[in-house]
Every structure is written in C-alpha cells, then in structure tokens.
Amino acid sequence: MYAFTYERPNSLADAQKLVQAGGQALAGGQTMLASMKQRLMQPEQLIDLSRVAELVGVRKDGEQIVIGAMTKHCDVENNALVKQHIPALAALAGGIGDRQVRAMGTMGGSVANNDPSACYPSALMALDATIYTDARTISAQDFFLGMYATALYAGELITAVSFPIPKRAAYAKFKQGASRYAMVGVFVAETAQGVRVAVTGASTGVFRHAGLEAALNKRFAPEVVAEVAIDDAELNSDIHASASYRAQLIKVQTRLAVQMALA
C-alpha cells in the first residue's frame, strides 16, 4: 500500500477540522481499506473516526430511534432499544456480512458508501429515516442518488440517523453466497403514513416500489404481492442473476417480509 498520513481525533470538532482540510474520513473501513489495497482509492490522509464518542450510541427521542454514525452493526443488532422498537432493523444488522464485518462496520460508513447491494439503505428508505450531518439534515428519500452516490457534500460528516418507529416492519434478503451482500433485499414497513417498500441489490441503487406499496396499502397480506407486476427493465443482470430472476426475487422477498411483519 502507498504512503499516507493517519489521524485519530478524539472529538467531532477535531475530526471536522481535519476532514474539511482535505482528509478522508474513515469509519469501519470495510470498503475503503479494500479499495485502497487495490489502489482504487489513494487518500493522502486518513481521519479515523473510531475514537469520536459523540458519534456512537443509540437513544430513543420521542417516537424516533436515533443511532450514531459510528455505531457498529453488531451493536445495532444487540441494542435493547432497537430490538424493542424496530426489531426488523436489529435483524437486518445481524445479517450483514459475517461476524468480523459486523464487529467493525458502522451504520454511517455503510450509509455514506451507498453500495447498491447494501442492506441499511433499504431500511432508511422504508422507514423514512433522517440523516443528520455536521451541517444539516437530509431525508432518506433525498439522500441516495445512485450507485455509490449520495447528497453529502465534500467534507460533510454523517453524525446520526433517526428512524421513526413503525407499526410493524421486516426485512427479507436473498444473499449472494460469497459476499453475503443482498442479491435482492426488501424492507417492508407499515408506518403512520402508510406502507413503504424499499428494494436493495436489484438495481443500481436502492429504490421504493410504488406498485407493491399500493397493493399492500389496500391489504397488508402476503398473497397480494402475487398480483403486482415487477418491471425488470432497469434491474441488474450479471453473473449472479438475470434481471428477470431478480424481478421474481423482489416478489418472493416482499412476500417473506410481509409474512415476518405479521408474525
């Protein structure tokens, strides 16, 4: 690996100064370090956020669960508040990668990276989450812009994500065997504003499916999913699965998610 400098600030204020001066923020490093080894990324300075206590933790704020950006997947999985109020989110976190990935990867890192097969973006979209940065708040609907693209500005840091507590929700994922990323993952949430269905792994980025939402808003039952047509025109087709196969997986995983939400 090439030469770079490494900083490990102890406060958010110090981290902000370093990142705004051009340093590259490092969260869990599950994607970044692999990219650096392949020389797909070559930052001159890494700013390790792991000691910034302000970015870690889970709390309940009214009818919202607020999770710090540097909270690890395993801590989301095992947190009592998350398990009580949004068990689907805890289950999602528990299905990310393997134990080592869950012990290092963070919510903020995953959200900022916006891998098209990552699990968290579907939860943010389905639950109508809000992303807090050190400069502003951004709705999940406006945050995810496409493959590895987000609304974050250069030098802007995610500090937390706030999730409205749903009436019920579930996440069903068909894993790609080697990576354990979602070949197709579907997060279904019945919220105060209605049913929301978000799909990851099937296209170039996370998206909501209007047809599935309309059908499930009429009747929240697994059998109604069969009546919905899934257009595969903009779905991925690769060595793992064709677009038409992914379209069928969307229906299968949605049906499973609804069954789990009703259980």
Helix content: 25-40%
The name of the CATH superfamily of the domain at 168-262 reads CO dehydrogenase flavoprotein, C-terminal domain
How much beta, percentage-wise? 15-25%
Q: How many helical stretches?
A: 11
Low-confidence stretches: none
Main sheet summary = 5 strands, antiparallel
Task: Count every beta strand, where a strand is a DSSP E run of 2 or more residues.
Answer: 14
What's the shape?
A: globular
Structural class: alpha+beta
**In CATH's first tier, which class of the domain at 168-262 applies?**
Alpha Beta
Mean pLDDT: 96
* CATH topology-level name of the domain at 168-262: Enolase-like, domain 1
**Spatial separation of the terminal alpha carbons:** 49 Å
Order of helices and strands: EHEHEEEHHHHHHEEHEEEEEEEHH
* Strands side by side in the biggest sheet: 4-5-10-6-7
- Rg, rounded, reads 18 Å
CATH architectural type of the domain at 168-262: 2-Layer Sandwich
- Oligomeric form: single chain
